[in-house]
Request: fold
Amino acid sequence: SALEGYQGDVANVANDKSTSQQECGLKLASKVEKSDKCFTFSVGEVVEDEITKVFLFSSHPSGMSLFSLRNATREFVLTQRARGRTYNMSPTATIDFHSELGFFVWGTNKFYLLDPTNVSSARYLNVDDQRLAKHFQFERKKKVQPLASFEWIEGLKKVLCFNRYALIVDEEGFACEDEPSIKWKLKGQG
Reply:
């Protein structure tokens, strides 16, 4: 497969002082494009100081990668690579770009936000919200798994879909109504 030896290639390229960050990013972006081991990816645009920036955020067996588009060459260049428990604990189920937030929303065992302009990541749901207590209990027991996230038509509300239900939250990660907002009812269940 195209990503066999991906980790080795990353290390070799990163340790080769004659290879520029751009060359490193182009090599990795090529592998992302051809890979059957890319779990998921999303592309989004952020307008900052009247300049449009395009980002690609992808998930792989070895972690996650953020690329930015260089307008002059029309090529994606590696901006940041992340490894560790949060980034490859379990396969990333979803990466979605939310234009209202200007962030990527991604989920492994929990939903997280990634601000591509300053490459900062944080948990999305607000742990101080008492209306989410039942959800956090399910999370601790590993009974919920993120599936997808959507922007809600009304303002900055988001729908975070899990395997058991969906939550409607605001841009700060607070529940907009009592949890769960939407329950899935499968055929054959009472």
Notes: The longest strand covers residues 51-60.
